[in-house]
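Budget justification note: compute hours in this period were largely spent on complex prediction jobs such as the one shown. Inputs:
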Amino acid sequence: MAFLQDPTVIVEWLRQLFLGWGLSPSLASLLLYVLGALALATGPLLWVIFLIWFERKAVARIQDRLGPNRVGPYGLLQPFADVLKLLTKEDIIPAKADKFLYWLAPILSLAGVLLLWPAVPLGKGIGGNVNVAVLYLVAVGTLSTFAILLAGWSANNKYALLGAFRTVAQMISYEVPIVLALLVPVLLARSMNLQDIVAAQDVWFVVAAPLAALIFFVASIAEVGRTPFDLLEAESEIIAGFHIEYSGMKFAMFFAGEFLHAFTTGVLGAVLFFGGWRGPGAESYPILGLLYLWIKAFLLYFVIVWIRGTFPRIRIDHLLNFSWKFLTPLALVALMVTAVLDKMLAPLGAWPRALALLVANGVIWLATQRWLRGVEKRLQPPMVAQPGEYPVAHYTPPEPQAAEGD
Amino acid sequence: MDPTWVFIGVFFILAPLLAAAPILIGHYLGPHKPNPIKNDVYECGLKTVGDAWVRFKVQYYLFALVFLIFDVELVFLYPWAVAYDMLPTFAVLEGLLFIIMLLAALIYAWKREALDWYD
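Corresponding output:
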């Protein structure tokens, strides 16, 4: 089976077919690109249907419910029923809305996530091989933020606008730690090409840079706008936030965009820190590499769902403080330590270098914890009861009541 | 031209089309019975007061400014990281100095309370 060892034979076969039809070589290549782009975009879109089922089922289990279980085996056909229902819903356009932006926002929301995919290496020799892939990810990853802002602004609804305002503050705050955390794998691999970054991971980068991996993961969850960072659509405060005025398929596009973005975060985390498509046998059988990447990405996605099912929502000032006053300085320090140590330890082999960096990361983490404990002590008054005082700040003792019968 | 970027160019045209297709299908499949009440702003059930297109609070601009400074300067660090093998120790130290300056800017913004959220 030549196909299993080298999937590009399909491309060559198709090219010969097109040339056989009498197309010019450049037109044949263009047609191949269009077909490839269609395949690459349709795959994730179909995968979302499964993700929606999985997430509903997993969150239901965490909350001690059954989740969808009526339509099809284990409720697997539930998302299809939902799509059919959403397709036949009325497409309401508010009279006061900015029509053009109102239409543009849901399209951009999904397209912005899909556009991340051409940069992702799916296996040895297949998938993205972009020379500035990391910069591309940073640039294109902001598009879905833009979509949320457009949606909130165009609907001319105060709740939607509040959601959009919060989005602006949140997304731009968490962009900084992401960019900083992305610098670490680039530094370790000496390349912005994700294919090279995967190739450089003889030792997974999560060993050499666990702090960067953690920062990337947490900040990405915030960037996607998932619980516990889902202030932009906090139901209990601003009803549905930015997509309050959307109905039918437009709402579904936001929904699908968010789910796909969460999974794409898993894919990027797997590529940058967990070895991407690497695994036993992936060098000779690229299809196997795709499977490994999928498993790693899915495990990371499961952790995101798990966090969603477990954590309460964070208040906005805490959210911004967490990014600016904790993640950003931590990422800067981690970057500096990685840069210095990596230059000093360059002659060593892959494993000793990774282990030394791991130890350094551990030291940074311990120092951070000590610092945090100091901050905590300064912010909180000592909880020691003085004579005649109650230890709880806002507690007023009840009036002493006369005992009955006196 | 680099074929990768041609592919991405094709993708940039196709991805919005793929996202727009279901919306258009839904738009034409669903019923169309607009009325003034349905198309009104959905807020609390009461008549809405005023326009939602108001001015931003100045605080958002502060965050946006700090973000802009950081993001633009961080992009300069990417070439530094890519060429790391070829750099002499001096250039590495210079890069570190750059990061320390960023850190100093962050601490400055922090102390000037640009990063605090006021209600």
